[in-house]
Amino acid sequence: MSNEQTTKPHYPVIVIGAGQAGLSISYFLKQLQIDHLVLEKNTLMHGWKNERWDAFTLVTPNWQCDLPGHPYDGDDPKGFMTRDETIGYLERFAAKVNAPVREGVSVNSVETDADGVYQLCTSHGDFSADQVVVASGGYHIPVIPRMAERVPQAVFQMHSAQYKNADQFPEGAVLVVGSGQSGAQIAEDLHLSGRKVFLATGNAPRVSRFYRGKDVVEWLDDMGYYQISVNEHPLGKNVRNNTNHYVTGRDGGRDIDLREFAKEGMELYGLMSEFDGENLIFQPNLADNLNKADATLNNINARIDAWIEKQGIETEEGPSIYTPVWELQQERTSLNLADSGITSILWCIGFRPDFAWLDAAVFNGQGHPKHERGVTQQPGLYFIGLPWLHTWGSGRFSGVRQDAEHLAHQIERYQAQVKSGANAKDAVTA
């Protein structure tokens, strides 16, 4: 190794990202007494503090929060933490872990040298490491379609990552594009604030908040769903592409029913596909989107019914099937922007990953890393905190602990191989 390389600060492990995933892996590395450094381009819990709206709540009950050494510590386990309560929970976790974090350090590139050692170029100098854990998540670049460039400048546009509350928008109606978890909840938030809302729906499914006397999450936990690994799931790794079910923890938790919003004056459309300079163009699939979302809700409830019957569980509430409270009379595929009263568009169509800084042959055609429970085919390179890394809870507070513990032991094993004299590039993680 050259003199230039030996002058760089070297660590056995460098973790990139100091959210709950990065701090979770740091927790276990500290337990194993493995020297490491955590690099964070912003500040601890930046996303939670700066990229959540004011009325945000968790959509999973508080009892599912089980970070390493830090299970839920409040007095409402069946409730749903607000944005501020979630930040407080995470700050207490960070204080417990006391990870070796350097904040404000952007990682510009990561590559391996001839010896298989990782070379990191950052905004605060160069580092090297035997192993690297990428804990920066998979939601990096907000998706805004090219059609947005053709919308008149007089129309205010924003991505969901920037949304805080209705006061950010000028007077007038708001078009929310996307009905996934964020889109559905933000559309409700704007609707409750008194705004006229137009909602361009997608194919996101929905789920009941409560059913037959319990939170549906509690039923699914009893049924073992959250313990199923990605390799055991009927969809296999394709489940990672699924859109999350929309539901809310707001005001103690409730269903989100877009049909109910329509009854109250929200205007619903199918998938938005184009803006032709004057008209917003939508696919004629609103009825299909609503019907499929309801079918998913009914299917999940039917599985719970079957579980209740199989286990002989006594419940006060019997089986039920959701009956639509509003029916579409006619598909509308065009809306004149000038005549609609829409003065703002909120894009809620997700994010795409950006790992361009990481020089490693571990990505698929969509830019997502290929791995087995966070372990890639490149020796010493790992990912954590991604949806369905291993189970449903991998990208949430409920499953990251198990993933972090698993990876920490993989890292320990690999480190032992490197210390035994094997080249890093030749050491193979078992």
UniProtKB/TrEMBL annotation:
Keywords recorded for this protein, A-Z: Oxidoreductase
Annotated InterPro entries: Auxin_biosynth/cation_transpt, CHP04046_FMN-dependent, FAD/NAD-bd_sf
SUPFAM superfamilies assigned: FAD/NAD(P)-binding domain
Official protein name in the record: Putative flavoprotein involved in K+ transport
Gene Ontology molecular function, alphabetical: flavin adenine dinucleotide binding; monooxygenase activity
